[in-house]
Design goal:
Blueprint (H helix, E strand, L loop, with lengths): L5 H10 L3 H17 L7 H4 L12 E6 L3 H6 L1 H10 L3 E7 L2 H11 L5 E4 L5 H11 L3 E5 L5 H9 L4 E6 L6 H6 L1 H8 L4 E4 L2 H9 L7 E3 L22 E8 L3 H13 L5 E7 L5 H10 L4 E3 L11 E3 L6 H4 L5 E4 L12 H4 L5 E3 L7 H9 L3 E3 L3 H13 L1 H17 L3 H15 L1
Parallel strand pairs: 1-2, 1-4, 2-3, 4-5, 5-6, 6-7, 8-9, 8-12, 9-11, 10-11, 12-13, 13-14
Length: 426
Amino acid sequence: MQKNSFEKKCLDIYKSIKPNTLKSIIPLIDFTRKLNKKPPIPLREKMAEIDFPNFQNEKVIMLHGVSVGEVMSLENLAKTIKKTFPNYKLVITTGTLTGQELAKKKYSELVDFITYFPLDVYSVVEKFIKSINPSVILIAETELWPNFTRASFENNIPIYIINARISDKSYPTYLKAKNFFKLILNYYTGIFCQSELDKQRFLDLGAKSDKVEVMKNLKFEIEKKPCDINLAQENFKILIAGSTHKGEDEIVIRQYKNLKKDIKNLKLIIAPRHLTRLDEVKKIVEKYSIKYGLRTNKDTFLNNDIIILDTLGELSKIYSIVDVAFIGGSFNKTGGHNPLEAIIYSKPAISGPSIKNFRDIYSILEHSKAAFVVKNEKEFYNTLKKLFSDKDYYQETSKNCSDCFLNQQGALNFVIEKLKSTLTVL
């Protein structure tokens, strides 16, 4: 590093920012967040002004996932870490309220402590690090916090980016400040990327070549679930609308009716995201005069065109018995749900345009021609029609799903082996 470079001076100035300086502008930030109907910043947690567990005589592994997508991607890794390293405490941090809520819901009984990632003020970060006392830190995807990374480096704590990626949108911005980010990247012990493209982008930003490797994608580390569901589906073509939200059921039903004019043996499963909407979904189906049954009644397709999945815990395995999946939360502002629950069974997935929660996954799937992001209802219909009416096209797309999934496997073992190497040396 050039000790007197402009970028180094900027980093030193950034390091000198005091907590009170930041606290003075928090009310303005919170006011802006309130106008945008967002909750206030959890200041005490982010300033490390909470009671931490006593980790001083413990060995600790820290995982960070900023929000929902990252937190979900850490599930199998967290479970495997607890199994592989039973003598280590496991701490998970998040950056957002939704991430924090999900982490507490999924990991409260698995991990030893869940809290917010600290604000990037050097004294705050140091206090946080000394309280957590991590032996190693794993940051999911791309969280380039200068002071946190620097403090970890200066306290001799190995810090890695796992599942690292740089999006098409972010890459040009990073390049404009290449010399600044080069300094930050060199504080990392290792940067493990989702793809060769991501690896090259980190190298372009100045990361050292001996620190950057391809690990593939943790989000693909899910397993098939055995399915004991029988809807008499064998003689029919099945479309599923999984995790639907308000407004989406009507879109799916309209296009289902249009498709059924040509595809007589087409059936539909509707799985509302929230069962509190069950009566609403029933009324929508009844409005279109379509005969339907309920999963709780053990109804099948022998006497019904639509089955409403009104049970908990069956959606992820029912994808195995369908032909094509529409993934809900994508024709409104929800941001989509996980398409991999369908793709793992080699079932092509279709989403509306709102996919912010899984944008990186859809990027991989679209590139592999395993999933489709449609802009509107017309595109939705056209995509469905081609998949259901063109047998060769469907088989090719289904194979793309299985190939894509296979190509992304291995990330979990990669990270565990790197952890073993790191913790053996410590």
